[in-house]
Specification:
By secondary structure, the protein is an alpha/beta fold. It has two domains: 117 residues, 2-Layer Sandwich (Beta-Lactamase), CATH 3.30.450.90; 269 residues, P-loop containing nucleotide triphosphate hydrolases (Rossmann fold, 3-Layer(aba) Sandwich). The protein has a seven-stranded mixed β-sheet, with helices on both faces. A hairpin with a 2-residue loop joins β4 and β5. α2 crosses α3, α6 packs parallel to α7 and α7 crosses α9. The radius of gyration is 23 Å and the shape is globular.
């Protein structure tokens, strides 16, 4: 799927800055999350990440042209052009169609040259309302119940790029009514939230999550958002804050909701205090959404996963609509257009609290959560496929078996 004619632009004599502008425009117009410039033995390979998948756009064979493009990006991000041994990170701004675009630049030295990845953030995109996250009504009610708690710890988990920040911002946007002090600790701050105090981690000067969290607790906050719990001190302090009357939201890298408990304990959270503090866990991931222009129904016998366990979750007035995408001009032949979230919501009950305090294995916690009505990611995904929102093949690609 070629969205930009690299060879044609180079043959036309476009400068590095003009070529970069066209790359950014293609990324923004096609809702790409990242631009990849990767040196390989045969030249500089260019790709866009579209709907979570890396989409090659061609390569620049000329070493001089490649170096000019890489150097332009580094200069734009105020990075050291001469540094070829150490990783670097910077940021820059661009304008596309009079929209402000924030660019986060990461540089990794490799055996062939510098690998540059640029995250593309459209500042003009409105924050989602929590109702617009795409949860089924039943799961939305469970989430609303968690975020409306006066205190406690709510974890948002999932792999990198699963949309955790979007969920957190939508949650804070709902709670931001002016009656409570909300403070966030982020790395980096992706969007400015009016009425919310946002602090950014800066490891270069020794400002990490733990030190910022200690200071935030002296600021008389009601609600605290921690961009990522990644060390023992942050884990322990977040749990203590939740036990002492604060509402704390934090993210973790755990695939399933029940696994988040073990992850947090392994980071240093005491099981007794975690059991008292934890209100719930939201595990999420993103799957590609079927293209509405070319989706067509298929017979359920063609599904490569059994669907009997979710058939009863379909509403009484709904008809199964298992589908696939043929591929069309609208979706660039992929059969998909955009992405949607799948959410697994664990609400802590007295039984779960006891299991956490006793440090029971993840399988026991998972089974107890299922008894309280938790839908797993696999169930939610298959339900979305039955409703014609995504495909079974996409679930197999994304979800743990």
């Amino acid at each position: 799927m070629k969205l930009i004619d690299l060879e044609g632009f180079i043959a036309a004599g476009e400068t590095a800055s003009e070529l970069w502008e066209r790359l950014v425009e293609a990324a923004v117009h096609n809702r790409a999350s990242d631009i990849h410039l990767a040196w390989q033995a045969d030249g500089l390979h260019v790709a866009l990440r579209l709907d979570g998948q890396l989409t090659p756009q061609g390569r620049i064979a000329s070493v001089d042209e490649s170096n000019r493009l890489i150097n332009h990006v580094l200069v734009m991000a105020a990075l050291d052009v001469g540094e070829r041994r150490r990783p670097q990170a910077g940021r820059a701004m661009a304008k596309v169609d009079d929209r402000g675009i924030d660019l986060r630049v990461s540089v990794l030295p490799t055996n062939h040259g510098r690998d540059v990845v640029v995250r593309v953030l459209d500042r003009t995109v409105s924050l989602l309302e929590i109702e617009a996250l795409g949860l089924p009504r039943r799961e939305l009610n469970r989430l609303l119940g968690l975020v409306s708690a006066p205190s406690g710890l709510v974890l948002i988990t999932g792999p990198t790029g699963a949309g955790k920040t979007t969920t957190l911002y939508a949650t804070l946007n709902r709670l931001n009514d002016g009656t409570r002090k909300i403070v966030t600790i982020e790395e980096p701050i992706e969007y400015d939230l009016n009425g919310i105090n946002q602090a950014q981690v800066n490891y270069r000067i020794g400002v990490d999550y733990a030190s910022l969290l200690r200071t935030v607790l002296q600021q008389d906050p009601n609600i605290i958002m921690i961009g990522e719990v990644r060390d023992a001190e942050t884990a322990a302090t977040a749990v203590r804050a939740a036990v002492t009357g604060h509402l704390v939201f934090a993210t973790l890298h755990a695939i399933e909701a029940s696994a988040a408990v073990e992850t947090l304990i392994s980071l240093g959270a005491h099981p007794h205090f975690l059991g008292r503090a934890l209100r719930g866990v939201v595990a999420q991931t993103l799957v590609r959404r079927l293209c509405p222009k070319c989706a067509e129904r298929i017979d359920e016998t063609e599904a490569v996963l059994p669907l009997d366990d979710v058939r009863e979750l379909i509403g009484p007035d709904e008809k199964p609509a298992l589908s696939m995408g043929r591929g069309c001009e609208h979706c660039h032949g992929s059969g998909y257009s955009g992405r949607m979230g799948l959410f697994e919501i664990l609400v802590v009950t007295d039984e779960l609290r006891r299991l956490i305090e006793e440090r029971q294995p993840t399988a026991e916690i998972q089974a107890a959560a299922a008894r309280t009505g938790m839908w797993t990611l696999q169930q939610v995904g298959k339900l979305a496929a039955l409703r014609g929102e995504t495909t079974i093949e996409e679930l197999v690609r994304i979800l743990p078996t």
